[in-house]
Amino acid sequence: MTRFWLLPVGGLFLLCGFSAIDGARAQEAPPPDQPDEIELTVTEQLLRRPLSTPFRNEGTLRDSTRPAYVITREEIQNQGARTVREALRFLPGLNVDGTVGTEVNALSSAFIRGSNTAQVLILLDGRPINNLANGAFDLSEITTEIVERIEVIPGGGSTLYGSSAIGGIINIITTGTPDKPAYSARVEVGDNGLNTQSFTVGAKDDQVAFLLSYNRTQAQNDAVRVVPEVNFRDRFRNSDTLSNNVRFQFTITPSDRTQLRFNTAYLSKEQGVPGGVPVPNSAGAFNSLNPIARKYTDELLTDLSLEQKLGAGNDSILTARVFYDTLYARNFDPSGFGGAIFDDRQTSVGTQIQHRWQFARNQTLTYGFDYRSTNNIQQSIPSPDVPLNATISQGALFAQYAWEFAQGSALSVGLRQDFNSLVNGSITSPAVGLKVAVTDSTILRANYIRNFRVPTAVELFSPNIFFLGNPNLLPEIGNSYDVGIDQKLGDIGLLRFTYFVNDITNLVAFKPLPFFLGTFENIGQVRATGVEVALDVQVVPNVFFSTNYTNTDPRITSDVNPAIVGREVSFRGRDILNLGLSYRNADGWFAGLFYRSVTSTPTNNINTQFLAGFSTVDFRFKVPFTRNISLDGGVENIFDERFQLFPGFPNLGRSFRLGLSANF
Length: 664
What we know:
By secondary structure, the chain is mostly beta strands. It is 5% helix and 53% strand.
């Protein structure tokens, strides 16, 4: 791969990406005798960040042996992220630039430590929501007004969460019900026909609380696109989108030891599918622009959970959850081959039961049971093909033991046994993690985890002769190792460095056959190595600098095609540098510059064709008019950098936005 820079380890300390610091929420101005700055130190803000994914319970970043990256609600708002996909752009450890565009509705992908999107597990409040037909979940479907924070755990997580966590986990934590009446509303406009309206209302009365939110986002995405390889400079005529998202949460707290919560989200979207510009002699050679194709999605994500504290203290907590989800997508294209309509529907029901038992002052055992059953139906209409209709059952027993054997030092050991209707027998996933506090300021980390991914329903059972399923596929297996250091920089910052190796065997890949036919097969092994570095510092009071750098080098180490052994896996190995410089104070003022640089990447596994890298600069600001009303806005891609995220799928270029928010 062609790199834009070669960085020695020492240089990484200054070149890491954006991992914004969790500042204090806007509040009354401090008295004159107090400094106008954030009260908690930068170091403590980071270490005290809530983190639940590595524990399946409440914890903090300080508690984890695993490298973890978190973006908070305030940071999401300051960056102007409208969807979960956009909110992940400046976090280290992952690449979300593998989408087909930069529109607000652009189909998302997430590459972590050499994995593809189907090898990254998506959780909503700790439960899986991936579509088991194709293995993915489109993160542009979830708008950020319902998000409290997002946790990214590179290196997998099958020990606690099962299949699909080979590369890592993205856990979307939603907002909870308020402790007192709360109301908020927001409007935003921008170029490309963008207009957004949202509101949230919540209240609490004694033991009962509720939260209701709504978001409507519309955009035409009609900017001029540029594909220089074929001298294309024009608008995409069918790139509009309209989404309507509703979320409702209801909680009952009969005592301080019992809470019952009902949570549901309905996500609806209609959008054009404009296709891409044909680019000869590239991965986009068979693209075509489509002025009429449309896509309709309707998703319902619902769960009911109970948390019960057992005994007299807080050392024994039982949680139980049942959930029901439907994911539906309809693609309509009268000019399409094989049918004007393609329906993809998944219905999922499941349960999670776990017990967290702190049986000694410094020892905790978390154990439980997971079950999920999904039915996937894919059908072309009209078409003589038999539809895909697969029911998948997944069950597991798991346990994780954590021992803090000295202050700041801990050992974590976990084991999970999965039973899956698609796999003969079962799969065992062990994990072990260690962190040692060398000094009060220096912590060393080391982790190993075994992960797996059961092939998708399409890969196993597709009846379509052009991509025929193979029921004899083996599960993909991942072995992830990482070592790292967390270094406090006094009270002004934190440096985190991680070196990783991720081995993935039994890779499932598409196998072309004569006459444009094809099927799927297990082809070989990939080893991804690299580093993740994150630095956050307070330069002076109210001025913060953050930077992170992610280097990923995924190499094919074994394959049925010897010509690609030793080559880099296409699209997965980009190096990413993020920089952020921001000002914020306790009155709610904010201004920030965000720089992002992404290297080139091969678009085929023989590494003969490459997609060029790119760099962008964004500016965001927020001006509080009163304690309750503020104006915010920004410019994305200030210098109008033109690039493609896939050959023939160009970005929108520079864009502007302006929003008005009210909170009471």
